[in-house]
Amino acid sequence: MPSMASNNADHTAKINNPNGPKADFMARRQAIEKHRKALPIAVVEKRLLEEVRNNDVLIIVGETGSGKTTQLPQYLFYGGFCRNGGVIGITQPRRVAAVTVAKRVAEECGVTLGQKVGYAIRFDDATSASTRIKYMTDGLLLREALLDPYLSKYSVIVVDEAHERTVHTDVLLGLLKTVQKTRSQGVNKNVHNRTIEAENGIQLEKENVVESTGIMKHNQGKNLSPLKLIIMSASLDAKIFSDYFGGARAVHVQGRQYPVDVLYTHQPETDYVDATLITIFQIHLEEGPGDILVFLTGQEEIESIERLIQERLPKLPESKCKLLVIPIFASLPSEKQMKVFMPPPSGFRKVILATNIAETSVTIPGIRYVIDPGMVKVRTYDASTGIEPLIIVKTSKAQALQRSGRAGREGPGKCYRLYPENEFYKLKASTTPEIKRCNLANVILQLKALGVDDILGFDFIEEPDRMAIIKSMELLFLLGALTDGSKLSDPVGHQMARLPLDPIYSKALVVANQFNCLEEMLIIVALLSVESIYYAPREKLEESRTVLRSFSSLEGDHLTLLKIYRASDEFLEKSKLVGSPDKAEKKLRKWCKQNFINSRSLKHARDIHSQIRRNVEQMGLCVTSCGDDTLQMRRCLAASFFLNAALKQPDGTYRALSSGLAVQIHPSSVLFRMKPECIIFNELVRTNQNYVRNVSTIDYLWLPELAPQFYALLE
Ligand SMILES: Nc1ncnc2c1ncn2[C@@H]1O[C@H](COP(=O)(O)OP(=O)(O)OP(=O)(O)O)[C@@H](O)[C@H]1O
């Protein structure tokens, strides 16, 4: 039976070579070289280098798959841009792209990953002193700027996939604009003991910064070279970026490697999940070899389609090959995410069910067919209520182009858009920048930590809503992160800025330290940071409720979550005593299934837990436990989440105290039937009703006692 894996030219080199592994290696290198030379960007290599030499800021727009992400950094390296030890930094909006592209480029350069070519993402640094081409997330580069405000080790920074306009990309652009200006003026010649208020309000040369960071000390008196800045994408409105950088030059790289045939439905689909399933099976039964990539909106949808495929597969007419379904979404542990990049076993066709995590930059070997239902889940923010609902909306044209661009990377491909063609033309050209639709508390915290005092005066590429800035500042003030003078408070604000969490959760950890229940809060925050850890198939709903009752705490969902986590931890530790770690993990997955727990979400929460535990320990906080004192724990929850308190009304519904919204306890909560007088909650779900999830019961009188800064204002 022929392998359905791919028609990848590179794969051919993997076939066992009778002349041994060395010949295999040579054949693969030759295939890679041939492939590189055939990329559309290869013919403009010299011109691009000239453009970078002549322009401090360059915008590059080129078709998906033309070779921007993998090739340009190599051209720059060989073009002499690392000559004085400078590093070429390339930012990506997503971790998975940073990792996989770095791996590919290391392979193309014939070097070990982490040497000349490396990557750095949060909690995972595969770079060394010899790294010259460094892929990283945009968020990571922002964190680097906290330690090294000049980004002094970089000679070139490439902001890739800028069209995504993540909040990190937007803030980074503002920061880079200032850093570039400062570096080109060479003001750093007399770095120490001076404070220069640069444009954007960033204090680049504060004495305390110089004193407090080794990197800055190292740079004292050193003449930093100018910084080159490149902004790249396949689907970018170059004008916005060009205007922002004072009329920066934009160049277009023409041509794509392989054609992608785009197909549309005749009619709008009423049920896109069902239409997706039908399309998967149709391709599988009727089309030639090649793997399938499907874009879905989130973990729950992916898991439900995964189940439906497995259910319907046996009923299909016999096909030449079998289907191997592999999910990929952000909260999946990274070793599981990497599975999508591996070739399937012989005789299998891969179907990858992905969120928009696989939408940009990545090349998944073997993909020939893309299914795009045209929907995406986005977080929004309502500044008037402070609510951040996740909603499912239509993609933009830019996203649709990126999605189709995941096919046609190793040969001609097909993209099935599950909507009529005229709908495509009605889509928004690009996605609304995240900064215009998100809670800005985290951004403000980071900007403050960078020394930007005047947030309203910061030169954003597109201004966020003033109201959203003010509301987010208010929130930070109420959380104690800002002083009356709007400076980062000491130590709370500084501690919060160091934690890679939503500010409310960062504050909860700081508060828990004071309540002596940091051990418990670390677990709770980790569990609140993942999608639901419960998993109950519809047909087993009653059974799951009975099983889960054994973990229920009458005091609420937070303590219930804590019990589940501890029970799973105890089970895992016991299993490790009698078997290998792998076997213990396997047993834990079985335990999860029996207890209707989503083992993927639990694993993700365990990873987050160990990461944030390391963070707080590095910050010098002491991880102590309040033991069985659940009263203390609930007081700590009230002190942490006081902004999300709600009071029972005579009709049995609740009124959220900060927004005034009428809400109800979600049926999945352990408090759904009990209906206590006063609650705090962590999530608001908007369907036809406003439901609150992750709820605990508290005493109303605790609120003015533990959060007088807010409840005194309400009086
Ligand atoms: N991990 C990989 N495995 C196999 N081939 C790869 C890999 N990464 C890249 N390629 C090949 O290199 C080509 C260029 O990829 P690259 O990511 O540089 O393009 P791009 O122009 O940046 O695309 P996009 O705009 O979609 O990010 C791909 O089309 C593919 O043929």
UniProtKB/TrEMBL annotation:
Ranges where the Helicase C-terminal domain occurs: 277-451
Membrane-spanning intervals of the chain: none
InterPro entries linked: DEAD-box_helicase_OB_fold, DNA/RNA_helicase_DEAH_CS, HA2_WH, Helicase-assoc_dom, Helicase_ATP-bd, Helicase_C-like, P-loop_NTPase
Region Disordered, residue ranges: 1-23
Stored Pfam families: HA2_C, Helicase_C, OB_NTP_bind, WHD_HA2
Reactions accelerated catalytically: ATP + H2O = ADP + phosphate + H(+)
Record keywords, A-Z: ATP-binding, Helicase, Hydrolase, mRNA processing, mRNA splicing, Nucleotide-binding, Spliceosome
Compositional bias (Polar residues): 1-19
One MF annotation (Gene Ontology) recorded for this entry: ATP binding
A single Gene Ontology CC term: nucleolus
E.C. numbers: 3.6.4.13
Protein name: RNA helicase
Lineage: Eukaryota, Viridiplantae, Streptophyta, Embryophyta, Tracheophyta
Gene name linked to the record: RID1
